[in-house]
Specification:
By secondary structure, this protein is of the alpha/beta class. 18% of the residues lie in helices and 18% in strands. The chain has two domains: 110 residues, no CATH class; 244 residues, 4-Layer Sandwich (Purple Acid Phosphatase, chain A, domain 2), CATH 3.60.21.10. InterPro entries: Calcineurin-like_PHP, Metallo-depent_PP-like, UPF0046_metallophosphoest.
Length: 412
């Protein structure tokens, strides 16, 4: 892997546009459309602005839509689809009986694609501010679930050919902060093992990306609360991880027995210790903004030994990633995306395929902060997003990894 220092914003041509938006557009579009539909001749519910200069698969000829009786048909390939971008939810496809009868062999997401209109347009349609068309899926809120999402190692073998994974040298905590910037300090996976003299660099925002406890016992959570309140950072952003059992309210009723809790503690009371801590903003499929910089936090990760906030790979994970707004600058999740900080000691990749595709195809954050895989600690960049695995503990649960620091220009 190439090695370089982290820039302020490592924006280069998108990893799926190695020629900066040129190349064969079908090679970008087709892998993210249901292959069963691509081969069957069924019309894809995708509308592309002609000015985006992306060729359509030959099967796509037109899409019938109904929008307050203003539209009866949008022709593709011959007309510019002048869509009302402020009202995409008003557009609904009219499906033929053949389209509704997609075989059960087609996965659930492929079938759901037939029931929602994906509007993919050039940024020029938003007022001409951008001269380069984004990836055609950049404005899709609902992503296609790839069949290989259940097999991350196999998926990475396919994707890595066109993926950049550049090693990034972290910013020195002692480096001066530029004017009109916000300094973020990131830790994760501390597992109640932080020594009293653990050094946290100064900054404006302290991020903890989950697994602040070992199993979420009251003593562990209260110690974490005390740790947070003892930090001088004006803002502390926290998400939960798979070890923070009581924070997964829906599943704690079964989790507490399996992980040795003496009794079922009050989830809401334990969550409140962190949520109500001084200066703390707890995120769970929710966001915040600091100095105009938008953040989003999510605790979920693909199934991992049946701990908290575990979801089956594929569609269940994608439904959580669909909640992430496209305007996020700093994304915080507990689990890693596929290919970045996710390689386990046994050679298996624990990262989420759908999280990677959501980040690269739609959200495009400046930074993605996560933990979960202790041996994946470090920074990488795909040409646009800097991925930060800030796990504090190593594989043997020793807190040996230093916090990661980065600066983001203020937007206010």
């Amino acid at each position: 892997m190439e090695e370089r220092k982290v820039p302020e914003n490592c924006a280069t041509p998108h990893p799926l546009h190695p020629q900066g938006g040129g190349g064969d557009p079908d090679s970008d579009l087709l892998p993210f459309l249901p292959p069963q539909l691509s081969d069957s001749g069924v019309r894809h519910p995708v509308v592309l602005c002609q000015r985006a200069r992306h060729q359509l698969p030959p099967q796509v000829r037109h899409l019938e839509v109904d929008s307050l009786n203003k539209w009866s048909r949008i022709l593709l390939g011959g007309e510019v689809a002048r869509l009302l971008l402020n009202f995409p939810s008003l557009l609904r496809p009219k499906l033929s009986s053949e389209q509704r009868a997609v075989p059960d062999a087609v996965d659930g997401t492929a079938r759901s694609l037939l029931h929602c209109l994906h509007v993919c347009v050039c940024r020029r349609m938003r007022g001409g501010a951008a001269s380069v068309a984004p990836h055609p899926l950049a404005f899709c809120r609902i992503m296609y679930v790839h069949p290989l999402s259940l097999h991350p190692n196999k998926m990475w073998d396919i994707l890595k050919v066109n993926q950049k994974v550049e090693k990034v040298i972290p910013l020195a905590p002692s480096s001066p902060k530029p004017a009109n910037h916000t300094r973020f300090v990131c830790i994760s996976d501390t597992h109640s093992h932080l020594p009293k003299d653990f050094q946290v660099p100064a900054g404006d925002v302290l991020i903890h990306a989950g697994d602040f406890s070992n199993t979420g016992l009251p003593r562990e959570i209260d110690e974490f609360r005390q740790f947070l309140e003892g930090q001088p950072h004006p803002h502390k952003v926290v998400i939960a991880g798979n070890h923070d059992l009581p924070f997964d309210v829906a599943n704690y009723g079964t989790l507490w027995r399996r992980f040795g809790h003496p009794r079922q503690f009050d989830s809401q009371q334990l969550r409140g210790l962190v949520i109500k801590a001084r200066g703390v903003e707890y995120l769970e499929d929710s966001g915040t903004a600091i100095n105009g910089i938008s953040l989003w936090g999510s605790p979920w990760q693909p199934e991992f030994c049946d701990w908290a906030f575990n979801l089956p790979r594929g569609q269940p994970c994608q439904e959580k990633w669909d909640l992430i707004p496209s305007s996020v600058d700093v994304l915080v999740t507990h689990g890693p995306p596929l290919g970045h900080g996710d390689l386990c000691s046994n050679g298996m990749r624990a990262g989420c395929v759908q999280l990677l595709l959501t980040i690269q195809q739609r959200v495009l954050p400046q930074y993605h902060v996560f933990g979960h895989i202790h041996e994946g600690y470090g920074l990488t960049c795909d040409g646009h997003t800097t991925f930060i695995n800030c796990s504090t503990c190593n594989l043997t649960y020793q807190p040996v990894h230093p916090p990661v620091v980065f600066d983001v220009p203020n937007k206010l």
